[in-house]
């Protein structure tokens, strides 16, 4: 009877054995600890006070460009801050479509950007897989060469690219621009996607080999889908480089019918010299596609950047 009572007492005290010295149970301690870890991971409050003004300063040029694009030619007066017109109008956008083949230039930009993006993502993913998982001779030398190619500025190689396009008969052609942008975008794509592929456990690759999958099957069905976040970063990078570039099309394209949208302000600078609103309307049109693409893939972009940091 005494043993039964003592066992019952011990059983009754069992739930309290995890109690904290202050009387709080372990579950409460865990909840408090979880809350503290969230507070530690959260950004400090002062960062909002710092980043807020910086964001406002960054937006001032954007607002100015948009405001000047709405500036009427007949009454170019603005507000006190000079950021936005008092009488905004969309007439400048109508003017650039009436006086220039904007749709043709837009199509040329698409015919250069879209194929180069697809080639860079596909070829970059294949090269990244080879450097990450296959036994490639001189793999370290290849990777160092990619790093060196990544730091070269466009101005230092534009003459060489011009000479190469002339030698292979692709000067003054959109195909030449596509191949040039593909070659220039591959170093960043390979380095970015390779980092993601290296984060995939080796056991995944070995298990697929044991199941009889070929290297191509492993790449296409496992690694390529898992690298879509890094591919989104490459898409944005390549789109910005091809869509916004001014120097290479200026050197490699002389036919007005083949010029991309970025050359419109230069090609018609004589017309728009007295019409700043029309000139800035073209600049807004150049920026819109990149903003739209970013809004669609921003989730993958953030995940890809976070994965590369890890």
Structure description:
This protein has 310 residues and is mainly alpha-helical. The protein has a domain at 102-260: MetI-like (MetI-like fold), CATH 1.10.3720. Helix content is 75%, strand content 0%. It contains 15 helices and no strands. α4 crosses α15, α5 (102-133) runs antiparallel to α11 (228-244) and α6 packs across α8. The longest helix has 34 residues, at 276-309. The protein is globular and about 75 Å long. The chain crosses the membrane at residues 46-71, 110-134, 141-162, 174-197, 218-240, 278-297. Its main location: membrane. Keywords: Cell membrane, Membrane, Transmembrane, Transmembrane helix, Transport. Belongs to the binding-protein-dependent transport system permease family.
């Amino acid at each position: 009877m005494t043993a039964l009572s003592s066992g019952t007492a011990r059983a009754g005290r069992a739930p309290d054995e995890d109690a904290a010295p202050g009387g709080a149970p372990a579950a409460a301690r865990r909840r408090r600890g979880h809350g503290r870890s969230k507070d530690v991971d959260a950004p400090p409050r002062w960062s909002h006070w710092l980043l807020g003004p910086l964001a406002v300063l960054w937006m001032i040029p954007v607002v100015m460009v948009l405001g000047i694009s709405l500036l009427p030619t007949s009454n170019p007066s603005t507000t006190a801050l000079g950021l936005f017109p008092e009488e905004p109008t969309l007439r400048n956008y109508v003017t650039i479509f009436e006086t220039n083949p904007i749709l043709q230039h837009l199509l040329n930009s698409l015919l250069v950007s879209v194929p180069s993006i697809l080639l860079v993502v596909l070829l970059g993913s294949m090269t990244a897989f080879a450097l990450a998982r296959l036994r490639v001779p001189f793999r370290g030398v290849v990777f160092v060469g990619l790093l060196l190619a990544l730091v070269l500025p466009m101005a230092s190689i534009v003459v060489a690219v011009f000479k190469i396009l002339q030698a292979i008969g692709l000067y003054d052609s959109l195909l030449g621009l596509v191949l040039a942008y593909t070659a220039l975008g591959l170093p960043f794509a390979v380095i970015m996607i390779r980092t993601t592929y290296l984060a995939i456990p080796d056991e995944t690759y070995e298990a697929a080999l044991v199941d009889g999958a070929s290297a191509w099957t492993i790449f296409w069905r496992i690694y390529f889908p898992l690298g879509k976040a890094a591919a989104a970063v490459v898409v944005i990078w390549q789109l910005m480089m091809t869509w916004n570039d001014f120097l290479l099309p200026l050197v490699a394209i002389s036919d007005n019918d083949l010029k991309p949208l970025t050359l419109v302000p230069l090609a018609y600078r004589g017309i728009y010299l007295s019409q700043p609103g029309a000139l800035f309307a073209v600049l807004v049109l150049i920026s819109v596609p990149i903003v739209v693409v970013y809004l669609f893939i921003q989730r993958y972009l953030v995940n890809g950047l976070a994965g590369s940091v890890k």
